[in-house]
Amino acid sequence: MPIFDLIALVLSVGGNVVLALLVFRRNPRSATNKLFALLGGVFALWAVATFFAVHTKTQPSAVFWVRSVMFLAVPQSVLFMLLMHTFPRATLAFHPRVLALLIGIAMAVMFIASSPYLFPEIRLVSGRAPQPSPGPGLIAFVPLAVGSVLLGIFYLIRKNVVARGMERAQTQYLLVG
User: Fold this and answer.
1) Kindly report the CA angle at 176 between 175 and 177, in degrees rounded to 5?
2) Which residues pair with 121 in a beta bridge?
3) Rounded to an integer, what distance in angstroms lies between the CA atom of residue 153 and that of residue 133?
């Protein structure tokens, strides 16, 4: 386990957690701040899972950590899309039924991601990260994960085009980030 990878992990997790807490404490009632904090927390967990997935030495451990990475990628992508749609408002701008449907789909895909349907086999090759074999669960995972991220980027670009003043500066910071 290279020390530089461990240092990068600690800095990444620490930075995400600290930033998430700072933003949340600034205005805990704001939907934007809540989503940002949740996303920061999921990023931190995902970084830990990715670290252990890459540095695993046993087959059962590889299966657990690779599935954990994919499990966490689902809320990560959905929270990103929700944050970009909501930013910078204090309230969530989704109809409750649409939000409930999105959460239900995300939970179903998270179940798929943690099962053998996403990656039926995960091989360990000496000196390399685990090598997962794709399964039929990718049919549900890819559209949700990739689609959520692309939709989030679309929302942010659209907001940047129409925003003025301080809001435009904020959206530009997000675009750069």
Assistant:
1) 90
2) 133
3) 29
Q: Which of 43, 35, 69, 41 is nearest to 55 (CA)?
A: 69
pLDDT tens readout for residues 31-60: 999 999 999 999 999 999 999 999 998 999
Asked if residues 56 and 112 have their Cβ atoms less than 8 Å apart, the reply is: no
Q: Residue 130: left (phi > 0), alpha (psi -120 to 50), or beta?
A: beta
Q: Which residues are within 8 A (CB) of 106 and not within 5 positions of it... i.e. 6 or more apart?
A: 74, 75, 78, 144
Decide: 20 and 36 in contact? Cβ < 8 Å: yes
Mean pLDDT, all residues of the chain: 94
Q: Are 170 and 88 in contact (CB under 8 A)?
A: yes
Short-list 103, 87, 99, CA closest to 156? 87
